[in-house]
Amino acid sequence: MTHGDAFQDIHPPFAPQEAVVEANRCLFCFDAPCTVACPTHIDVPRFIKKIATNNLRGSAAAILESNILGSSCSRVCPVDVLCEGACVMHRYNKQPIEIGRLQRYSMDHFYANGAKLPMNGVVERKERIACIGGGPASLACGAELRRHGFQVTIFDAQPLAGGLNTYGVAQYKMRPSDSLREVELIRSMGVHFEQNVQIPAGMPLELLEKRFDAIFIGVGLGPTESPGLAGEQTSGVVDALHFIAGYKTGRVTQISGRVVVIGGGNTAIDAANAAHLLGADEVHMLYRRSEKEMPAFPFEYKHAKQHRIRFHWLTLPVAIHGGEKVTGVECLRTQLGSPDKTGRRQPEPIEGSNFTIPCDIVIPALGQTRLLPLLEQLRGVELCDGRVVTNAATGQTKNPKYFAGGDCVNGGREVVDAVADGKRAGQGIAAWLT
Amino acid sequence: MRAFDAGWGGAVWKTIGEPIVNVSSRYSSVDLNGQRMMGLNNIELISDRPIAVNLREISEVKKRYPKHAVIASLMVESTREAWHSIVKQSEDAGADGLELNFGCPHGMSERGMGSAVGQVPDYAQMITEWVKEVARTPVLVKLTPNITDIRVVAQAAKRGGADGLSAINTINSITGVDLDTFVPRPDVGGQSGHGGYCGPAVKPIALHMIQQVLGSADSNLPMSGIGGVSGWREAAEFILMGCTNVQVCTAAMHYGFRMVEDMADGLSSWMDEKGFQTIGDFRGLSLPKVTEWKHLDLNYKIVARIHDEKCIGCDLCYTACWDGAHQCIHLGPDHQAPATIEAASRQRITQTPLPASYHRTNGTPRERIPRIDEDECVGCNLCALVCPVEGCITMDQVFTGKPKQSWEQRNGGAS
């Protein structure tokens, strides 16, 4: 099976007439709940009615006005728990409007027709803003600042911009090229990109502060949390984000054997699905709590079940076995105890319940670490629990020159949350510099 | 014959006359929100087949289906001889009745036929008289709506001795313009012409004109109702408005002859429900319920009521009342204008995952259910019309305690 065949779109695009029929179902609610539910407040009925009238250029402009990453959001947003979850059609005993697919329809038309976003009426300003990190938060912040006429440079440690949109989103939702065309749109708006620059190694913070009038921190999170297991350095152990980036950049095209994924979040499911699609014979997921506590969205869980991923609930890995290569994961059974501060019941290992799942590849997917080494160097920027503390409406940190948004502030949420943060911070910076 | 097999009781064989040549590209339509053909326009003329062929086929059909009515719809040049001849030939062929097409608004009217006759009361009367001189079967005059007062021609037909009327013929129309070629539809090699409009969109106009004709003693004749009859509901409406029968064309063109099945079945179920044995039991019941505005009761009052448990929170009623009516539906604690409410929403910071209250499977949040200010409500119906949920907004009568009083009564007869 070739790479292209394996990762089919989970939500195929609309054909033109299909889109018009769906657009016509939209009731055009006043102060629409879908718009309120969207973190970037895309005016959903407005862009949908423009599809119904075949004003696709206007539809795309309406989306991009609120969300410059409207294309990636249309592919990766968990719409069931966002706009489509809020659709009044649920109460009308009908299917919600397929907002995500309609948005994708407009966005695909936009990118297929030159992706020109008019920047008329922007008055250029001399103030310079640095955005650290090349992911969705920085891209949205940079685009918003360009709309206000500011000079923006994005510093990104990776060879390609886009952050997790380019390197971390499951292929059946979005391809790197989908992310990169958005980067190009933002570049065309006048945002300057400096790739392969690690801050502060590539440019000291003093210099950055001297050269720029404001700095936006959109660095996201660090590498996947280490499971802290004996044997985790064994060959055949690869963390989820590396694994996903590996196949998305073409380094990994095929795998075989038994795969064990450790974790119960959305990234764990992405990794498990990818392992299945890349040819794994069996994919097992280990989660230390029960099905009920699993943090992955229900539709992601359903998707994984369709790929025949085998779930092992109440299972805590304690060691990775193997010599040169991984041979298995040793686990303990758990039972659920009293709730922790998040309200979820804590897993308690059951002594002597050890058992081993033989496997060839282990993919820990336990969430990402905080980028503390960088964040702690930012003078006057307050952190709480490893997250940057900001004013939610403006993105401004305790050090007024620094603004922040995205995963490094919210601890790891959706692309659309990062875009909303970046946009608000862009507006916050513009207001602060005016 | 396929129509009769499908359950139709009769056919109007239209329109027989000296054969003509048609253009190609003949129909165009108006679609609404993805619904096809809510209105249909045609620039077709009458039958392009020789009179002899039409008549021979009528005889054949009558032989095989003697119990089904065949009405010959006729249009010939405006001479006594031509009309006498076609009437005789049609009746000899076995036609059970004649319909004089004085309504066709395009093409034929340029040649002095169709609506060129129907728009001039004297011509209409004269030709009706010619036909009646020889006709042995009932004569219907088909009226054009493309006239200021349809009653005038109906009266002329009655004076001319017509046994009945049929209305309405199609309405002059241009359905639209192609936004790439700038040619109106239908495009006949880069040009177009006005056509005749029919289909569901014209029903309100047809009902009104039929009411006008049947509501006036000097034009009142048995009426065959035409114009947007698409199913049993419209059939019932036309008969309630006084029609003897109804004719269907566009709906059969759209869905095929089979659409008559529900027309008969649905009408019959409705009649059972209402206790009507025959069509005559309800014919014309709505006619006396139409009056002039000056006789309407000024003291009758209704107000809108929103049934919270059915409200899905689309708030279309709110925006409609503010922008299109009387600003008496409100959201939130005060009388906030739409722009104020929307601006506040856009300032809200939302993050995934959203709280459960955002999910509409959990019901409509209180703050999205609008309130009616009943003292300010004028009972215009707009909110109930825009509400997508059946029975969510009802217009309820409020007893004012005042006696019935019309404008005429209040103004002492002055208008």
Could you give the topology of this structure?
The complex is a heterodimer of chains A (434) and B (415).
Chain A: H1 3-6, H2 16-25, H3 33-37, H4 44-52, H5 56-66, H6 70-76, H7 83-86, H8 99-112, E1 128-132, H9 136-147, E2 151-155, H10 164-167, H11 176-188, E3 192-194, H12 205-211, E4 214-217, H13 240-248, E5 258-262, H14 266-277, E6 282-286, H15 298-306, E7 310-312, E8 315-322, E9 326-339, E10 345-349, E11 355-358, E12 361-364, H16 372-375, E13 383-384, E14 387-388, E15 402-404, H17 407-410, H18 415-432
Parallel strand pairs in A: 1-2, 1-4, 2-3, 4-15, 5-6, 5-12, 6-7
Antiparallel strand pairs in A: 8-9, 9-10, 9-11, 13-14
Helix pairs in contact in A: 2-4, 4-5, 4-8, 5-8, 6-8, 9-18, 13-14, 14-15
Chain B: H1 2-6, E1 10-16, E2 27-32, E3 35-42, H2 51-64, E4 69-74, H3 80-93, E5 97-101, H4 115-118, H5 121-134, E6 139-142, H6 150-159, E7 164-167, E8 171-173, E9 195-198, H7 203-214, E10 223-225, H8 232-240, E11 245-246, H9 250-255, H10 260-274, E12 301-306, H11 316-324, E13 329-330, H12 338-347, E14 371-372, H13 382-386, E15 393-398, H14 407-410
Parallel strand pairs in B: 1-4, 4-5, 5-6, 6-7, 7-10, 10-11
Antiparallel strand pairs in B: 2-3, 3-9, 8-9, 12-15, 13-14
Helix pairs in contact in B: 2-3, 3-5, 5-6, 8-10
Description of the molecule:
- The complex is a heterodimer of chains A (434) and B (415).
- Chain A has 434 residues and is of the alpha/beta class.
- Chain A folds into three domains: 8-112, Alpha-helical ferredoxin (Fumarate Reductase Iron-sulfur Protein, Chain B, domain 2, Orthogonal Bundle); 128-222 and 369-432, FAD/NAD(P)-binding domain; 240-364, 3-Layer(bba) Sandwich (FAD/NAD(P)-binding domain), CATH 3.50.50.
- Helices cover 36% and strands 17% of the residues of chain A.
- Chain A has helices spanning 3-6, 16-25, 33-37, 44-52, 56-66, 70-76, 83-86, 99-112, 136-147, 164-167, 176-188, 205-211, 240-248, 266-277, 298-306, 372-375, 407-410, 415-432, and strands at 128-132, 151-155, 192-194, 214-217, 258-262, 282-286, 310-312, 315-322, 326-339, 345-349, 355-358, 361-364, 383-384, 387-388, 402-404.
- In chain A, the strands form four sheets. In chain A, strands 3-2-1-4-15 form a five-stranded parallel beta sheet, sandwiched between helices. In chain A, strands 7-6-5-12 form a four-stranded parallel beta sheet, covered by helices on one side. In chain A, strands 8, 9, 10 and 11 form a four-stranded antiparallel beta sheet that branches.
- The longest helix of chain A is centred in the C-terminal third of the chain and has 18 residues, at 415-432.
- The radius of gyration of chain A is 22 Å and the shape is globular.
- The termini of chain A are far apart.
- In chain A, 50% of the residues are buried.
- Chain B has 14 helices and 15 strands.
- Chain B folds into two domains: 2-289, Alpha-Beta Barrel (TIM Barrel); 293-347 and 362-408, 2-Layer Sandwich (Alpha-Beta Plaits).
- Chain B has a seven-stranded parallel beta sheet. Chain B has a four-stranded antiparallel beta sheet with strand order 2-3-9-8, with no helix packed on it.
- Chain B has helices at 2-6, 51-64, 80-93, 115-118, 121-134, 150-159, 203-214, 232-240, 250-255, 260-274, 316-324, 338-347, 382-386, 407-410, and strands at 10-16, 27-32, 35-42, 69-74, 97-101, 139-142, 164-167, 171-173, 195-198, 223-225, 245-246, 301-306, 329-330, 371-372, 393-398.
- The chains are: A alpha/beta (434), B alpha/beta (415).
- Chain A binds chain B through residues 20-21, 24, 27-31, 33, 35-39, 41, 52, 78, 81-82, 85-92, 96, 297, 392-393, 410, 413-414, 416-417, 420, 424, and chain B through 33-34, 312-316, 318-319, 331, 338, 341-342, 345-354, 358-361, 363-364, 368, 388-389.
